[in-house]
Structure formats: structure tokens, C-alpha cells
């Protein structure tokens, strides 16, 4: 009889979801570690080239192919915009500035400097807990301090200054009152074309704080570009699940309902003092904007059996940009943007 | 452990792993059964088709609750038992035991994830290493995968396969002569059957790279297999005297998808795939006269904290108590499964009341800690 007896079941009815025990700013800061691990995983699998990424990850982990491809796409899309910006106008990076908001473990400046493609000034801003750790890591690694040249560590080790690279602690919620004056005192030149970069940063701020930031950024310069990478589409089943999953890790995408679509992402710049704007999702970038040889190279790096999941996941991330051109002068910034390749 | 398949099944239903030695013998014995099955298994209705489950063990239990427990329901599983979910080992061990115990009631078809190369990328290998400390169990199962059948025909009418069609296969007889007892090759008929996808866009021109002289197959973005269209499907059904193709392999947000004027359908059985996709799942119930019904279900209720007073799964000697009453449909798409609070009386001679087994015992057997699930995003 026991062989026909339908079975008693596992005592729990579902796997236990990971609860990080973090919340608020702590949870936001923790996203930097996650991003650093994902980036290094992509580097190690050959998607990206970045000799500095490993210094920011204590325990490397592998990521599934769909995540590696997403890390690659994120990096490639932003790098494309940064390169376009640096080459715009007179074609020289030396006449430009970059302000990287919530930069975290970003290695962009080091990669640019290593190729002598760095701008006149590069500012990185993040919470002091993050900048302090980053400064420590930089100091410990010769290949990075060599690129820095002469440098100064201040404010209890949370600030790092060199000739054209500045790592500054601050709260982006006080962008106009705290951050802008600070970078002004560090050589920020409003007449130079400036790129503001927000890579999964604004989304964690309240819509009011992020709108103020985007507006203040426009007002602080004569010309430039604002680039954002973040999540969109909170209301479909994937989006609903994403918000629930992140909530369990203490992460709230406070900004997602304010700009939940590509159109509203564009609008956020147009209503805040930027002249032109654009937005694409990462699926579009992969399918239609990325160079096809690159796409072929990347597709061959790993067995990729997640086509539908890739479309879903990448469709929920976008890169959006706003452009401000100097009155009466078009310094080539109008060409900055992720445009579909005409095939 | 002394050899008692019923005991093993009962343990597996409670998500307890079997020892390495038992797994080895289990795979050996199951190969002996599978080796006698042809590449195209013949099955009769009534039968329930199950699509990809990808190691989502709790959702496999959900399938049995909804579709009926083996052996009272006949099942054809269409592959992709492992990878991506956190309980691939428990899942494949359970299904293998069920196959061995009731070989005529359970059919296991090979999916593209039943492969050494794919399981090293997508999690099964890692999970075996983590749970057993070595790769032996992975080896036993991947060797077993070489024996899984490639396709099923239900009452000479419904053709079932994991992926789809192949430009090299026009007749079902051609499938019968494939040497399947090997790792899935990178290309050729066997690869196509587990990797291909139907495509419903009207024109192939936009995809580039057609291969068949009629242009009905196109290069697949998966890097293996092909994309095939409506005409190819119609021709295959005509030539082989079939009425319908049922396959899995592709995520369906609604749990299933019907294409090509009902010549082909996809069944997908992993709800909230990777704990991230937010999708529904289904099983395809094929009844008498080959009537088809997609039984749709959502993810298991999650964040299940064992709180005092909460309804716990009951156990009872009364067989009928185990056929679940399906609970209310939740607005968010979950299938809130509620169990009747059954009397806790045991069948004489039955196994220990599972409610006596608490979590600490479960975790001890599964090797240290409740598995923590993290859905991955870009942050």
C-alpha cells in the first residue's frame, strides 16, 4: 500500500529568499559590490577588457551568461556615449569634463588615462563609505597610483585628489548645495563641455531629488550631456517581480515610476533645461545599435541558451541622454547619442 | 541505504538527497530501461505533458499537486530538468526514480540542457559539486542523459519533442535511426531536435541566413538548431500523418503558446523562471479523444515563514485527501495553493509522519543551510 500512497511533502513550500537585512542607504551602497562582481565576471569571461576591475572585488564569482551579456551591454553602451562625447567638437578629450555620479568602483578614469584619452577634469562622487574604500584600494595598487601621478588623500581618507582626477565624498541628494560648490572649488569650469554620468544612481533617489539634480546639472554648464543607465517598465510581470525581489534585498527603485518608459526618460531632460534627449533599451542596443562584428564576437564567448530571458531582462534597462548645446554654437554635441546603425 | 525505491521516492518528495552510491545504482538501473526504448517513444492518452522545469523542485511538486501524483497520472516530461533552478539534483533524482519505479507511466525526453557542456555553464555541475563534494553524481546523470529518448508520439497523432524540427528530418522514421546514445552534437538532426524553435514572424527575410532550399529554416540566435516556420510544420505533419506538434524549450509568459493555427504548441512548466521572469507555467493535459487542456499555474507562494498556527501540509492515510483543492487565483498571478487540514492519521505500516521532520534535519541532509535564492539583476 505504501508504494501507492501519495507522498508527504517537503515541509517548506518554497525556497527561502535571500534577505540582506539591509535597507535604505546601506542597501544602495551594497549595489556597488554587486555591480563590481558582475563586471569582473564579464571581464574574466572575455566580454570586457579591464585590468583594474579585479582590485575592487574581494571574492570573484561567476555569473550566468545572460548577466555577463547584460554587464557587457551596459558597459559598451555607456562607453560609446562617453567616447562620442570626448571626441565631439574639437575632437579632443582635453577640452572636456566628466562628472561621474555615484561612481562606486567604476574604473573608467583609469581606463581612459591608460590610453591618454582622459578629459581635463574627472570628478567621481559617492558616499564617504564608498569613496574611502575606493581610495584605499587605489593607494594599494601601483598600476593605479602610477596613472594618478602625484595625489593627495584628505578628509580622513575619503577624498583623493590628483591633477585631473578627484574622488569626492558627498550626498547626491544635496547636489546643488553641496556637490556643485565642491567641484567648483576643484577647478570645475562651466565653459567646458561636461558629461554627467549616472549609472544606476538616480533610480535610487526620490523623483524630486533626481529631477532637481538633472535640472541643476543643466544650469551648471554651458554645454554638455547627461547620461543615465537604469531600470524601466515596473508594471509588467517581470517588472513587478523585479521590484519584489529587490525589495527583499532592501533595495527600492524610488525613481522608476517617475520615468517608467523610454518616452518619460527622454522627457525628464527636456523639462529640466536640456535641449535634446534620447533613450534606448538594452535589447534595442544589442540588436540594432551594437556593431554586428562585436555582437558576433560576444555571442561566441559562452553557450547562450537564454534568448527570451535576455530579451525580457535587457528590455527592462535603458540608457537615456540629454544634450545641452551652447547658445549660438553647435559644438558637435548634437551627434552624441545611440543611433541605430543603418544596415 | 538498502535498496527500496519507494523509500527513495518518499525521501525525494521531502527534498532529501540520496547518497552517491544509490544515485549511481539508480542511474545504472534506469539506463537498462531506457536502452530498450526507441528514439521515438509511443504513448497513449490520457497523458500530461510537462515542459521545462529547470531544477525548480518546489514547482515540480506543484505540478504533481495539480496534475496528479505518479503513477495515477501518466506523464511525458519534455526535457530541461536541470540548470538555472537551485534544486536540479533533487529534481532529476526524483524524476529518475519515478521513471524506474513506473516506466510505463513516465516518459523522459531529452532536452538541450541534458548535456555535459550546457550543464557546466548553467548550474547543474556546480550544484552537484556543492551538494556532494565531487563530480561523480554529475557524471552519473550526464551519462544517463545519453539514454533519454528524443521524442514521443501520442496515439499516432501528437508529435512531442523538446525543441523542434530539423532540415535533416522529414520523416519520423529518420529520427528512429539516429544513434542517440552520445553527447548531444553541435549540429545535425539530434542537435536540431533539442535546440530548434518555431518562429511566427511572417517573413524570414529580416533574419538573414536561410539554409533550406525553400528558405523555411533560418539560423537560430541560440547558436544551435534552427528557426522553422509554418510551412515546414505543415509539411512535417502531412508527411508523417500527425495532427499536432507539442514542444517546450521556450519561455512563455502565459505558461503556453499556440502557433501556426494550432499546428504547434509550446508548454512551459517553470513558473517565475529563474525567480525573475514573472511568468505563469502550465502542463498540457491530453485526455480521451486527444482533447487538449493547458492547466496553468503560478509560482509557489514564497517567503513562507513557518509561523505558529499556519496551515501545514497534512498527511493522511486517506488517499483522497491528497488530491488538492486548488486555491484561489491571486490577482498577481500566483496560484495560492491551500491544503485541506487533513487528519493526521497514518496508514498502518506507513512511513514516519513528515511533520515530525523539522527543518534542521532537512538542512543537515542537504548539506549545510537552507538554499538561499538570489534573483540576479543589474544594480
UniProtKB/TrEMBL annotation, chain A:
GO terms for molecular function: protein C-terminal leucine carboxyl O-methyltransferase activity. S-adenosyl-L-methionine binds at residues 74, 102, 171-172, 199. One of its GO terms (biological process) is methylation. Keywords: Methyltransferase, S-adenosyl-L-methionine, Transferase. InterPro entries: LCMT1, Ppm1/Ppm2/Tcmp, SAM-dependent_MTases_sf. The keyword Transcription does not apply. Pfam families: LCM (PF04072). The keyword Glycoprotein does not apply. Transmembrane segments: none annotated. Its EC number is 2.1.1.233. Coiled coil: none annotated. It catalyses: [phosphatase 2A protein]-C-terminal L-leucine + S-adenosyl-L-methionine = [phosphatase 2A protein]-C-terminal L-leucine methyl ester + S-adenosyl-L-homocysteine. PANTHER family: LEUCINE CARBOXYL METHYLTRANSFERASE, LEUCINE CARBOXYL METHYLTRANSFERASE 1. Methylates the carboxyl group of the C-terminal leucine residue of protein phosphatase 2A catalytic subunits to form alpha-leucine ester residues. Belongs to the methyltransferase superfamily. LCMT family. This is Leucine carboxyl methyltransferase 1. It comes from Spizellomyces punctatus (strain DAOM BR117).
UniProtKB/TrEMBL annotation, chain B:
The keyword Membrane does not apply. One of its GO terms (molecular function) is protein serine/threonine phosphatase activity. Gene3D superfamilies: 3.60.21.10. InterPro entries: Calcineurin-like_PHP (IPR004843), Metallo-depent_PP-like (IPR029052), PPA2-like (IPR047129), Ser/Thr-sp_prot-phosphatase (IPR006186). Pfam families: Metallophos. Residues 302-339 are annotated as: Disordered. Its EC number is 3.1.3.16. Keywords: Hydrolase, Manganese, Metal-binding. PANTHER family: SERINE/THREONINE-PROTEIN PHOSPHATASE PP2A-RELATED (PTHR45619). Belongs to the PPP phosphatase family. This is Serine/threonine-protein phosphatase. The lineage of its organism: Eukaryota, Fungi, Fungi incertae sedis, Chytridiomycota, Chytridiomycota incertae sedis.
